[in-house]
Amino acid sequence: MQSRHRLRQLLAITAMNLRTLPGRLGTAAVAVIGIGGVVAVLVAALSITEGFRAAMSLSGREDVAIVLRGGSSDELSSGLSLEAVRHVMDAPSIVQDADGPLASPELYVIVDLPKRSTGTKANVPLRGVGPRAPAIRGAFRMVAGRPFSRGMNEVIAGRGAASQFGGLDVGSVVYFGGTPWTVTGIFEDGGSVSESEVWTDATVLQGAYKRGTSFQSVRVRLPAAGQTAALERHLEADPRFSLTARTEKAFLESQSRVLITIVTTIGMLIAIVMGVGAVFAALNTMYAAVASRTREIATLRALGFGAAAVVTSVLVEALVLGLLGGILGGILAYVTFNGAQASTLNFQSFSQITFAFTVTPALMALGIVYALLLGLVGGLLPGLRAARLPVTQGLREL
User: Fold this and answer.
1) Helix-strand-coil percent breakdown of the chain, rounded to 5?
2) How many Cβ atoms are within 10 Å of 209's Cβ, its own excluded?
3) What's the rounded Cα separation, in Å, for the pair 383 and 324?
4) How far apart, in whole angstroms, are the C-alpha atoms of residue 142 and residue 158?
5) So where are the chain's domains?
6) CB 171 within 8 A of CB 182
7) What is the helix (H) or strand (E) element at residue 86, kind and residue range?
8) pTM of the model
């Protein structure tokens, strides 16, 4: 019976608080906009992580393996002789079709291209690939122009690279390694990290960069997802070579781990710093709300309303403001950033990776939870002040 009485008190005073919100629209809007701005920044920062993770996960296949030199953590630090490449391609565990093994020896170099947005130079991956590279990647398709011709100084650009970097329009001529290259086409690969790259014939790239007959990696199609054991046994069978194989998914996850950690950490730090300002906005709003209703609160206390009901009602009002700010910030982040194309530095390869900002429902929910937390913190001290205010002092307020 007593708990029901307390609930009625809480509902009554909370309803009174919320009904007076329109009269305090200015201060309430400051809190909502402040919290909304924090949520928008948090969600936008974390959408970079989600977009980058999505690009890498779309690239990573369990039925494709990458063979590198033993001890190499990335393609730039790897090096494979022609004999080592032949040993890899002789593996009986690689999928074969009418044209032979589904394997692509590849070479990876970094070239400079200007960003379309700023004109500043950026590191862009230039990948020399074998004839089977499109078949291995599966989702590859040309969307403009034509494929490069084998043995010619021609390149094709991934859709992401073409959108972010200048000089990659079909028909343009770019200079890499002091050599002119003609851009013959644009390709897609299902939104994967390959769309951040420029491709050419591996043999031509070897000559242009004086790499002899060496490669840096070999991509191979496996008979089933994750079945690298047979390939690894074959690689270890010849003591002349030190080779290691990982699934493409595992390799790309290791490449993205550093950047994801950095972006997530920076995003959270920015949100925390901005959150302090939002809390002060909420505090100001709630203190103003309490000050404007000092006599009302004192009267309610004199009529028997408990301190707990007063505190809770102020917190509920603060949570409502936080919820509104969270929804506002989530919508703002989604409308402004979701799907926007961008590029960032991959700290493993020191080259640019293109991706799309991805505002997921989970990120928007996280933003709303953070907004509710900010509202709760902003309403706690004013609520306690209202509850502790002596009744006689409150009744004397004009």
Assistant:
1) 55, 20, 25
2) 17
3) 19
4) 9
5) 2-57+256-396, 72-241
6) yes
7) helix 82-89
8) 0.70
